[in-house]
Amino acid sequence: MSHILVTGGAGFIGANFVLNWLAQAGADSVVNVDKLTYAGNLKTLASLDGDARHIFSRSDICDRAALDSLLKQYRPRAVLHFAAESHVDRSIHGPADFIETNIVGTFTLLEAVRAYYADLGDAEKAAFRFLHVSTDEVFGSLGPTDPQFTEATAYAPNSPYSASKAASDHLVRAYHHTYGLPVLTTNCSNNYGPYHFPEKLIPLMITNALNGKPLPVYGDGLNVRDWLYVGDHCSAIREVLARGVPGETYNVGGWNEKTNLDVVHTLCDLLDELQPKAAGSYRDQIAFVKDRPGHDRRYAIDAGKLERELGWKPAETFETGLRKTVQWYLSHQSWVEDVISGDYRNWVAKQYAA
Ligand code: NAD
Ligand code: TYD
């Protein structure tokens, strides 16, 4: 039986990837390596309970011995690296975990994979891939009329999160250049969709709206993000894994630049339609709050290379994807209640205290 090894497969994108992967006929089994931080949630993977194709290991990517043993036992044909600390605001309050997981963890994983790869036979070596899942935030912030980020855009990370992801991207690149490891890197724009932890903009706004709480918009609400439905990110990763050229990087995006205020207005309008309040609109709950320090103004992805070279295109528009997402949250309120732990409540109290 062939395997792929996924890190961070209990988080938002990793879990969506694992679910989508195993829904394909004839898919390789998945070895899912996740530390289960506050952001990891096995309930997301409950539909795989009893499915022998999903092997879960609660392990830290900084634990070299655990990685060596999993690689030795399962001999994966590919490693897909999703595990990371991923929330910019948390990286501002406490960058240390970001350095540890995103930089030291990626380094530890690369070292384990380098040793594993060195012992593979020629045919296994030729087929093996290490796919590193990264972000467009490594490119920094765009002005209103700047062209979108391409794969050639210089790195200029501004937050501890994006700086730690940039460092990990550079390590991955170096392991190709120096050791010949067959790596692929994807730099994707902001994702949204099912199983998104409710500390990020879209799920936070849906959750707060339904709970009658303020909808906290940072600064003037005119920062721009380029949104992609998570299922489309997963399909892009599958394409890059199957046909990407080792050593290359691929930008992934949905051609959906929106201001935060536009996003929040659209969410309120969808909720007004799908679950109207007794009186008034969810828009009445919008509250402008203190801006994020060093808040990047605009991200925008040129995903032309992926389309030209691998034929990938997103299946969802922002409108169809957001409607699906709101409908998913409305019908999965128990998932949200489960992930809103004591730890999460402490975070909300600290972050939105002012
Ligand atoms: P997430 O925070 O929802 O999930 C991260 C997962 O990694 C969690 O399950 C967590 O338990 C696990 N993890 C954290 N530290 C670990 C460690 N030391 N060892 C093992 N597991 C650990 O993140 P996400 O939004 O799913 O993002 C996944 C990847 O995609 C990240 O690398 C992120 O940088 C990248 N990315 C995210 C977005 C986005 O919009 N969310 C966009 C582009 C790229
Ligand atoms: P976020 O979902 O944290 O993603 P990222 O910072 O990685 O882009 O935030 C998306 C945008 O929404 C970003 O410009 C910050 C803004 N934002 C708010 O206005 N209010 C909030 O409560 C949050 C969490 C984010």
Automatic annotation (TrEMBL):
Pfam families: GDP_Man_Dehyd. Residues 5-325 form the NAD(P)-binding domain. This is dTDP-glucose 4,6-dehydratase. InterPro entries: dTDP_Gluc_deHydtase (IPR005888), NAD(P)-bd_dom (IPR016040), NAD(P)-bd_dom_sf (IPR036291). Belongs to the NAD(P)-dependent epimerase/dehydratase family. dTDP-glucose dehydratase subfamily. NCBIfam families: dTDP_gluc_dehyt. Its cofactor is NAD(+). Its EC number is 4.2.1.46. It catalyses: dTDP-alpha-D-glucose = dTDP-4-dehydro-6-deoxy-alpha-D-glucose + H2O. The keyword Lyase applies. One of its GO terms (molecular function) is dTDP-glucose 4,6-dehydratase activity. Keywords: Lyase, NAD.
